Amino acid sequence: MVNTIGVIGLGVMGSNIALNMANNGEQVAVYNYTSDLTEKLMAKLEGQILTPYYELEAFVQSLAAPRKIFLMVTAGAAIDSVIQSLIPLLQEGDVVMDGGNSHYEDTERRYDELKAHGIGYLGIGVSGGEVGALTGPSIMPGGDLHFYNEVAPILTKIAAKADGEPCCTYIGPKGAGHFVKMVHNGIEYADMQLIAEAYTFLRGNLGLTVEEIADIFETWNAGELKSYLIEITTEILRKKDAVTGLPLVDVILDQAGQKGTGKWTSLQAIDNGIPTSIITEALFARYLSALKEERVQAQPILAGPNKRMQNLEKEQWIEYVRQALYMGKICAYAQGFTQYKMTSEIYNWNLPLKDIALIFRNGCIIRAEFLNVISEAYDEKADLANLLIAPYFADKTASYQQSLRNIVCEGIQSGVALPCLSSSLAYYDSYRTGASNANILQAQRDYFGAHTYKRNDMEGTFHTEW
Ligand code: NDP
User: Fold this and answer.
1) Which one, 105, 174, 334, 372, has the greatest CB density within 10 A?
2) Pairing between β-strand 28-31 and β-strand 50-53 as defined by DSSP bridges
3) pTM
4) Whole-number Å distance between alpha carbons of 279 and 340
5) Complex-level ipTM
6) Is the shortest distance between the CB of 12 and ligand 1 below 6 Å?
């Protein structure tokens, strides 16, 4: 039996990726280090479209040379362990792909190790969850271009399509693909939190019911906010709990989990001096949500604002929320794409920002109408310093910024935390401030630590005996 590709790891994602490949005409060998998952998957399949192997060596030998192996196993030590078992079985020119959420620095280390054996290693960002893996995810491959070219026909076939084009493009060398996936997830955190805050305002400040908010989101999904996250939030809000009959969201515990990619995004930004406050605020919002017991205890202890007799005109304020959400989204994506740009410069990756926006248009969790305008912005100016100053976004923020101010002010006055919306406004206002207050910081640093400062009216480095 000669198989055209092999998939290792038959969990949620791996089994669906393997089926996606088989559905697209590939002869797929599958292997899992414990036989249970393989047996379970094969029992579920009616036709014999995947070929199972229970020995790694037989699995590898069944593959046509150069061998193409796609790993979809738990990120971290499991990947290293699979790679170590594979190395003695592979030959020069074979290609190993890691489709899991590996940290891009781990990918660079593994790339170097396999390169020493002449084996290609591609770190492949895959987004789209369980369903996307089966029906077409967004795929972000990084590594050596010639190895990517070997597997490109398969990856582009299994990827989602947007306007007929595959949502898969070569991202850049070494860990670039996994880096782009990591920041994608950071942007996803911010996008999700912004939507949650819009919901909070509609529910708490405008007194709307969950059903009314679902209707509003549905309307928004027909306009410029159209996106997978708005679409699924609409469906989530319509779902009733089978036990109580209440909206299911009302019985879901308000403690958010996370698997670490948002944290990695923030850590990388902090390490490299990249301002991604909205993305990091979304991460902190999840951390704060986890302190449920403390929040419940603090509620009767800590004072809020005086009760205000504020009767907001609903239609008007719903539109303010919509515009504030769009504005927040623009700021969050501006930060994520700044992280791409600045990191690309650090590593000399030459990340194709326009194409990254294009492959996010379908398959992935942050897929949205909005990504078309981002890609147009980079098409017009590839070295754009920040999305905010692209003509489309400068015009849009000019019309929407007042709505964001209205929502954030009302949140502050009513004691409702809107961390990502507030952070978006602070970012927008900071970014458009030519003369910041960092002169005070520099003076303070020079005062207590003789750290020196520069002047805005002459060259040189100065120190004052304060
Ligand atoms: P699952 O937990 O469903 O599957 C993990 C797979 O890894 C299983 O096949 C498991 O085998 C295998 N595995 C675990 N430990 C080892 C080991 N030491 N050696 C060999 N194989 C091992 O996870 P998912 O399918 O959800 O995720 C797989 C990867 O894809 C992860 O990196 C994840 O972050 C990433 N990902 C997940 C997405 C999602 O929506 N779920 C989206 C995009 C990426 P066994 O069960 O027998 O232990």
Assistant:
1) 334
2) parallel
3) 0.96
4) 13
5) 0.97
6) yes
